[in-house]
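Sample log: Histidinol-phosphatase.
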Amino acid sequence: MAALSEELAHELIEIAHALADAAGKVILPYFRAPDLTSDNKLAGGFDPVTAADREAEQAMRAVLAARRPQDGILGEEFGALAGSSGLTWVLDPIDGTRGFISGTPTWGVLIAVSDDTGPILGVIDQPYMAERFIGGLGQARCIAPRGTSPLAARQTRTLDQAILFTTFPEVGTAEEAAAFRRVAGQARLTRYGMDCYAYALLAAGQVDLVIEAGLNPYDIQAPIAVIEAAGGIVTDWQGGKAHDGGQVLAAATPALHAQAMDFLNAAG
């Protein structure tokens, strides 16, 4: 796709903020509500969805229908809608619904704008803590109650100094879990369970690595844009593009990324 005009870039950034605002307004009354219930989307497992997930995505889709009807949409709850502009909004209304129904503030609203090359703008929004991480199209900042600050991944270069995150201790398949443990065995500290908030912390310079498997495009496109804007790197476990999901390796520096990838792909 051709380079975006300054006017269009400004419009997309403004609409991304409007989407986050609309989603947060819908979601917050449900968070920690005593009568919150969830349905299970996964036969033979547990993949919860709540009214907040569905209503938040509907609210974001309503904003796009009014302001950018020519764009495509890919959302977790209501699927794909084709567009004609070459741009697609990739939406996850609540990334981390398991955390959401548990009352932990580690979930977030994920919003990305993608073209045929992948995500060009991303937002990780945590409305309960009023933290919004935005990256791409000249943006790399966190807007929070204590003010606005630039996003910058830290310069950790070796695994023995790295803080590593993943959401589930199982990571994915048995083979993927074994690969993760090879990296974790070299890291300074390994932590679990943060969903999209771990990617925000990487972009903010608080942690160094996030390694996951089994992701969908709507799980990772916004974090890719935010982390890359902060100077980090996000690929699959082989160093290729990660915007279609699957295995994801996010790192603060290329040197750290290379070391982690070596251990992920070492013989078991």
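Observation: The chain has two domains: 6-150, 159-264.
Observation: The two ends are 41 Å apart (CA to CA).
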